[in-house]
Amino acid sequence: MGLVVAYNLHFVGNIAGAYALIDPPDKYSDGVLGGIAGLLFSPTHGLFVFSPFLLFVPCFLRQVLRDRKMRGLTIAIGCAMVVQVIFYSMIDWRQGMSFGPRWLTDMVPMLVWMLPPVLAALSRAGRVVFAAAALAAVAIEVVGAFWYLGVADAHVVAARGPDRMRPAWDINNAPFIAELKHPPAPMDLLTRMRGYLDEIRVIEASATGGQATERQVEIVGWALADATTPVDVNAMVDGQGIAGTNAFFDRPDVSQALGSTNAAGWRISFPASKLAPGDHMVSILVHPWQGGEPRLIMERKFTLAPPPTSEQRAVQALAERQQAPGYWLTDFTSGTAFEQTRQELNTYLNAVMVDVLSPVANEAGVPDMLMRARRYLTDQIEPGGLVRYHGRPDAPTIGT
């Protein structure tokens, strides 16, 4: 216990571990008695519901404590189990996505260890009842082994508010009942997963129509599960889930190579601001079937460069918006509000751009851009020296 506490304090910063950092107060139980009842008797996670034969231990406690040699150890183990139940009763006893009494699993072998004197004291009828309870536990675990996909738990865990524990007491949400409403879980281990991470690229931020777009990381690849389209694909970066998709598109190259006509291509994108500049490891996980376990198909390292500075973004915007002949267009509107804008060409804006860029052209790396703008303005001077606001009347940009 001391080593666990030391680990939590040193690496997590909280004596209770990592869960204490993410679980808000509403994740805690409304009462100790209700939590104890839920841990032991709820149809969704109750220990004595999933393993009813273990009820023989508390019901025949006198026989359990009869052996004087083991009585001290039995009492110590029993006290430890009581403390564990009380502790877990004070937090969210729904226990997340799991089949059965997840938080009390380590109590099961202790309770089984206490059973022999109970069985020895049972009558024939008592042993029949015990065998029936044991068979019921086995039947429940068969459902967990071959049907469980977490469908029922999703409804139970999603409940919020004062009555959030009510779905956990609904017998219809018991996983050994709710999970039988769908076919058995697919045999994931026999599924042949194929796929590839084709490319990781960074799409730089740009501004179109006055709207700035954030720099994006885009991951592109393909995946097939037994030659069929998987359920979804998720990307993890440095071990943390970052984004995913369930949208797939046709990949003619994959279809031609593997002979499958099912959609295999996928694309995942997320804001680059979610990652710090530097080296990262991308892992691609694929769910082959609904409720199946995610399968790792590929990992790849990539380096995220620091975002461009404001000066670099300004130069990029100027380069993107300069037209081939060397001029820039400007937005205008005929109304008093800057809405439903249109673009036009005027020489005044381009002359201002030349005046502003000239002192810093070399430092900004835009001498070629500036030279094209000067050449365009020079061509706008008519033989008599006149320069029109919208350019020469015979220019193809008149009316633009």
Q: Can you characterise this structure?
A:
- The protein is an alpha+beta fold.
- The protein has three domains: 31-181, no CATH class; 188-304, Immunoglobulin-like; 310-379, no CATH class.
- 38% of the residues lie in helices and 18% in strands.
- The strands form four sheets. A four-stranded antiparallel sheet has the order 6-5-8-9, with no helix packed on it. A three-stranded antiparallel sheet has the order 1-4-7, with no helix packed on it. The protein has a two-stranded antiparallel sheet with strand order 2-3.
- β8 and β9 (295-304) form a beta hairpin.
- α3 crosses α7.
- The longest helix is centred in the middle third of the chain and has 23 residues, at 124-146.
- The mean pLDDT is 87.
What features would you highlight for this structure?
11 strands, four-stranded antiparallel beta sheet, Immunoglobulin-like, 400 residues, three-stranded antiparallel beta sheet, alpha+beta, 17 helices
